[in-house]
Amino acid sequence: MSWTSERVDLLKKLWLDGLSASQIAAELGGVTRNAVIGKVHRLGLSGRAKAPAAPAKARKTTRPANGDAQPSAPTETGGSAPQTVGATALKVEAAPAPAPVEKPRAEVVPIAKRASILTLTERTCKWPIGDPTKDDFYFCGNSSEPGVPYCPYHCRIAYQPANDRRRDRSSATG
Question: Which of 3, 74, 90, 102 is the most buried (most CB within 10 A)?
């Protein structure tokens, strides 16, 4: 596909009319959104008509400016109905806070159970403990289930359900 003068003129017109790069690419055919953006950049077309924005709506407040509380409509039970402002059909209801997840406490591995790399077997926990560059480094060495590299305690640490990982990650960033 080459940029003929007719296609460039149509690109300029559509750009100044306020169409998006995706819309222009679809109109021109045979070009991608990125190709349109690159051509617009090379042509130096910076100014473009903005799509008419919807007029800004004033937000309703639950209290008038003078501070008097507005009574809400009574319900069949005699109480007040909760007031809603705006469209709430797709409103996401706040979920109750999840119960705190109890973190496993550090298990003390008896010296007799501690394993070196040479003493690990198929049925021993291979959870590393300590710094591998230090002399006091060892592996857990407790019994593990067949086909699983860790004891039940270290499995709870190593294999967290996906929902718990997401919750931990979002609480650390939020």
Answer: 3
